[in-house]
Structure formats: C-alpha cells, structure tokens
Amino acid sequence: MKKIFFLIALAFMIGFAAPSVYADSGFISVKTKNAAVTALSQKYGDKYKKHIERGISQAASVWNKEDGSEEDFKKFCIAHYNPDADKSLLRKYEYNFNVINGHSGEISRLLGERIQLDLGDIQPIDMLFGEISIPSFLSEEYFRTKIAFDALLNYPVTTLEEKNSSWRKWSRDDWAETRLAEKFALRVPADILQKKNSAYIHADTYISSYNIYMNNLLTEDGNRLFPEGLKLISHWGLRDDLKGEYKSGSKSAIDKQKMIQKVMERIIAQEIPQCMVNSDKYDWMPYSNRVFDKNGKEIKAEREPDTRYALLKEVFDGEKLLDAYDSVNKTAIDRHFNGELEMSEKDVENLLLSVSSSPYAKDVGKLIEKRLGRKLLPFDIWYNGFESETSISEPELDKIVAAKYPDRAAFQQGIPAILEQLGFQKRKAEWLETKIDVDPARGAGHAMGAEGREFNAHLRTRFNNDKMNYKSYNVAIHELGHCVEQVHSMNLIDNTLISGIPNIAFTEAFAFVFQSRDLQLLGVKGGKASDDMNAVSSFWKTYEISGVSLVMMKAWRWMYANPNATPGELNIAVRKIAREVWNKYYEPVLGGKDCELLAVYSHMIDCGMYLPNYPIGHIICYQIEDYVKGKNLAKEMERMCVQGNLTPDAWMNMAVGSSVSAKPMLDDLGKALKRIK
Q1: How far apart are CA 255 and CA 261, in angstroms?
Q2: CB neighbours (10 Å) of residue 259?
Q3: Which residues pair with 213 in a beta bridge?
Q4: Vertex 441 angle, CA 440 and 443, to 5°
C-alpha cells in the first residue's frame, strides 16, 4: 500500500489532458470554421458533415495565433481531414506513440533513479536532472508539429456521459480513437507543465527521505523501546511497525504503539524537532518534545518549519496553474475526478461516506475490543488482526523471509514461483519475470510501469543492505500486483492507445489482491483469512483510508477557498479538518476526541488528490475477489487487464458484471458479523 506510483506515472502523463470536451480558444472565427466545414462537406458529401463539424470544432478549440493564420487553419483542415479515419491512420498513431511514450518514459525513469532509488545521498545535480520533464515539452511539440490538430480533426473527444452510455456498442477502435483525441483536448504551455512537475518532484523527494531513527526515541524516564538501527519512513514505516506490534507478543507493544502515535502527531503538527528528521545525531522524547545530545545534555531544538504544508501548498499552486487553460473542468479537483478518475467528486465522496458512516463500524470496533481485551485507542484504526489467522510474530516472519529471499536477486529470481502459486502457467510466469525488474527503493516502495512494449515494469521496495524483511516483502508483493497488471495491460493488450486501466484505483485493486496472499505465498499456515474475516478486514482497511481521503478532499476544497494561505495557515486548516472528520466518523468507534491521525498520510503531501484511489481500490478488490472465487485468478486477471483504459463503469461491468460499489462488501460484512457473534 506504499508507493509513489502516481508520481512516477505523472512524469509521463503530465503533458496530457484529462478527458473532457473543452471550449473554443476564440482565435478561429465562426466564419472560418463554417468555411472549412462547407469546403470539406462539398468535397466528401453531407453524410460526413457532423463528423466534419465536430473535428473542426475540436481542432479550432486549441489553435492559437502562433499556429498560423485562419487561412492556414482552413488549409490544414482540408489537407488533413480523413473522411473515414481509416485504420491505417490509427495504426500509425499507435506505433509512433508506443515509440515516443516508451522511450520518453525510460528517459524519465533513468533521470529519476538517483532520487527514487537507494543509491546514496541525493546531490543538487540529481534534483536538477530529476526535474526534467520530457513529456511536458513533447506536449507542446505535438501542437507545433500539428500532430495534435490532426488527431483532433479526425477523432472524437467524448464526454464521460457519452462513453458511459455508448460503451456497450463501441468497438476497440472506438475506444482507441477517443483516448487518442482526448490526449490533446487541453493545451497547456510546457513551462507551466514543468512548474507543476517540479512541485511534485520537490514533495516526493521530501517524503522519500523522511525517516525517523527509532532507537533515538526516549520514554520520559529515558528508556529506549526500539532496537538499534531501526529506521522508519513516515508515515508508512511508522504505521507498519505499529501494526506489527499487534502480534509481537512484546510486553512493551502498546507503549511502542502509543509512542509511534505521538511521533505521528508531532509530524502532523510540525512540532517535530527538525534535527530528528532523517538523522540519528540526537535523542528525542516525543511526549515532552525534548531533545538531547549524545552526552545526555538537553539542547534547544527548532521545530520543522511547516515544510510539510509548504510542499502541499507548492503542489496545489502547481496544479492550480492549469486552471487558466481549462474552460470546462475549471479546477484541479474537477480535472482529477471528472478527468483522471472519470468518477464525479460527489459520487466518490458518497462512496467513501457509505463506508465511513456505516453502522457496522461500531460492531467491528467491538469485535476488535474483544480481541484486544481493552478499550480501543485511536491508533487501532490500523488494527490488522483480521488479515490472517496465523499467530506468527513479525520477527519470526522476518526470519522466514530472510531464509527464502536472502537478497534482492533472490526475490527477483523467485517471482516465477510466486506467480505459479497464484495460478499462472510456468511459461507465463517465467515470461512475466523477464518483464519486471526489482529495484531498491529510497522511499517506502512503488511500482513503475513501462510506457512502451519494449521496456520493463519496475518493482521497488526497501532493502536494508540488500536484505529483505517481512515489511519489505509485504510491500514487494503489493507492488508485484501492480507490475503484473502493468505488463498485461501494456504488452498483451490489442491496442496500446488504450493500454492501462481506467484509473489508478484499479491497479491498486490488483495490488491488494496480491498483498492479501503474502503469507500464503510464504507457506505460512493460516496465512489466508476466512471469507467472514476477509469481509471484516476489507471493511476495516477501507474504513481507515476513506477517512484519510475525506480529509484530503476537504483540504483541497479549503485551499481553493483560501488560495493565498501561508503554510502555517494550511497547517492549522488541515489539522482542523482532520479533527472534524475524526470526531464525526471515527471518535464514536475509536475514542480520542479531536484526534488528528487522519492527516498523517504522506501521499496527501506528494501525490495531489491520489488518496481516494486506495479506498476505491479496496472496494474494487473486494468485488474482484468475490468474482474470482472458484475460478483461476491468473486467467481472470489477464482477461480483466487486457480490457484496457475504459471508463470505470465499462471496465467493471465487463470484468465482474456490476459497477463500482461498496454494497457487496457491506452486505457480506453484515452477514459475517452475525456469524462471528
């Protein structure tokens, strides 16, 4: 569940528009457009008139003065209009974009390696090269060469409503044509795209390097709870260590969990001493917020100066720059939901609320209380005792992982065997391994799909001196789900113009499908939960991340209402929103009035509005798991993945026979709770 998949993909996608239909730029007059329509209708006949009118309107909407005169526009339309948009033209677009996207994606990946991978300290020159966004410049090049105008002239930019109402009768080429045209429906200058890209790179680098040295944390009486050498990234590493304590059997487990919560709260509030971020030079008492040097002398330490919120503001400002060029989806919020997700903001919020406000949350909370033998505390939002029926502790799991995968090369070589256990045929599993490279992540871990068929997907997880532990293995299995989806939806799809999946929530769903089997794949007895416990576990994970996503959505609305806010003001606002969401949906279950933990998620800072992909991914995962019961997972996964980049509604109906909905999960949860009681 830990990745910067969105950011890696962003380097490629940043030059392309979110799907929509955009208003006219105003440079080409109605008179000129009408003249072009008349000339082409006379040449090809009235049966093409509607197609001609649509194409000319689309091309004119983004034609500017620097592209040529109105007469130049008319001549271009007459010369480039293809009455039947024959398949040979579409094949040329497919071939050429596979070449361009594949190679530009590889360049972006290689230039970002010094930032993304654990290859030593990041130098200033690494940041400069990492900020290069080739797709940003290619975007304008498509308009300069007039490739974009040719595509808009000949292929339709369709609304979400059109796609959702027409997909049952659309051919594969119909999907390819509209996905091609909508890449150019929004025209943004390269320098604006570069500024947006730089904002994400800055935030990503900050998050990827935000580590806490746990042995340097002290209790108020000076004791150390955590082992020497334990370095945890915020928030993922902190959260996962907290989760691991539920089965550790340690007498200090709850003390460790409480301390991790306090560290998270200090990070959220930006009360953490700056000297404790990614450094082991000092010791820190999180509760009293006191810092000591190695001789035990207390020192004055400055807090982190709202860097977290300054970078969130920078990302917001970068996204907001595009508003001036978008006359339909007028905000980044609209572009994200209506465009990237192709699910309305209202529909997504209602989906999240159907989980976060579910009355079943209290029943699950009582079940957790019974298991823990105590009242719930806020950090129990991350309780993971439903995920499997094994009692093996995390240190024991570390030993199992170390024996099976002693180093990165061993995990790479072990991929075929993992995939065979999941139902893939031997030859297919071996081929998939050749298309996936395992890298050492600097951050928590992520997956990076190839943008062309000639290149490989990259699976990234944290290694400690090239060694794996259970946490890095668990992340690796999650990322393997991403990579297997990416290879299928790029290399086995019939047309690369529709490669990929509807939105990132769908690749998250496959990652969750793999991750839920991580203990099974290790051969751990009880590694797979029963159907009833799976319903409870799926709900609790979705419940947690739905709250995080609601905080993010409300934070972006606040930033749009207060675009000139300072980082300090944003700090106060985000924490207030987190408290409000907690008090309404989580405090009745977990206690802890005014808790701010929902604001700790790192992707809130470095990934824009990515977070709803997680709860939606959990919901889709549940629907997929329900559908594949009694079937071969590998075969069904391939069938689903090669559908490609359709709308969520079309993809889900073709994959499992229904639209995205939390109802199956909630219905099963209600039945499961009755049986468990």
Answers
A1: 10
A2: 22
A3: 231
A4: 160
| Phi and psi at residue 412, to the nearest 5° | -55, -50
For residue 24, what pLDDT is reported? 61
The Cα 272–Cα 264 span in angstroms is 9
Of 381, 386, 354, nearest to 588 (Cα)? 381
Q: What is the largest CA-CA distance in the chain?
A: 89
Phi-psi region of 385 (alpha: psi -120 to 50; beta: other; left: phi over 0): alpha
- Total residues belonging to the chain: 677
At residue 436, what are phi and psi to the nearest 5 degrees?
-130, 125
Q: pLDDT (tens digit, 9 = 90+) per residue, 393-444?
A: 888 999 999 999 999 999 999 999 999 999 999 999 999 999 999 999 998 8
For the stretch 601-622, pLDDT in tens is 999 999 999 999 999 999 999 9
Q: Token pair of 607, please?
A: 């990934």
Average pLDDT of span 265-279: 98
User: According to the 3-state scheme, what is the secondary structure of 390-422?
Assistant: CCCCHHHHHHHHHHHCCCHHHHHHHHHHHHHHC
For 543, the token pair is 């419940």
Helix (H/G/I), strand (E/B), else coil: 445: strand
Q: How far apart are CA 658 and CA 269, in angstroms?
A: 42
Q: How many whole angstroms separate alpha carbon 415 and alpha carbon 121?
A: 30
The beta strand positions in 186-311, using DSSP E, are 211-213, 231-233, 283-285, 290-292, 298-299
Q: Nearest 5°: phi and psi at 437? A: -105, 135
Tokens at 200, concatenated: 């994400």
Confidence label for 23 from pLDDT (cuts 50, 70 and 90): low
- Please report the sign of the dihedral spanned by the C-alpha atoms of residue 79, residue 81, residue 85, residue 91: positive
Q: How many helices (H) and strands (E) does the chain have?
A: 31, 8
Contact 496, 94 (CB under 8 A): yes
CA dist 257 and 264 (Å) reads: 11
Q: How much is the pLDDT for 157? A: 94
> Would you put residue 555 in left (φ > 0), alpha (ψ -120 to 50) or beta?
alpha
Instruction: Please state, as a whole number, how many other Cβ atoms lie within 10 Å of the Cβ of residue 443.
Output: 28
Closest CA to 545 of 501, 624, 604, 605: 604
The model carries a pTM of: 0.91
Instruction: Render pLDDT for 496-544 as a digit per residue (tens, 0 to 9).
Output: 999 999 999 999 999 999 999 999 999 998 777 789 999 999 999 999 9
Q: Could you give the CA distance from residue 550 to residue 348 in angstroms, rounded to a whole number?
A: 10
Tell how far CA 237 is from the center of its chain.
Answer: 18
Cβ contacts of 673 within 8 Å, gap of 6 or more: 360, 363, 364, 367, 536
495 pLDDT above the threshold of 70: yes
Positive or negative torsion for Cα 423, 428, 431, 435: negative
Answer whether 168's CB lies under 8 Å from 193's CB: no
Q: Which amino acid is residue 564, in one-letter code?
A: N
Residues 92/150, Cβ–Cβ less than 8 Å:
no
Radius of gyration of the chain (CA): 26
pLDDT at residue number 85: 65
Where does residue 662 fall: left (phi above 0), alpha (psi -120 to 50 degrees), or beta otherwise? Answer: alpha
Average pLDDT over residues 225-250: 94
Cα 145-147-151 angle, rounded to 5 deg: 160
| DSSP element (H, E) containing 649 | helix 648-656
Neighbouring C-beta atoms of residue 95, cutoff 10 Å? 11
Per-residue pLDDT tens over the stretch 164-175? 999 999 999 999
Cβ atoms 543, 358 nearer than 8 A:
yes
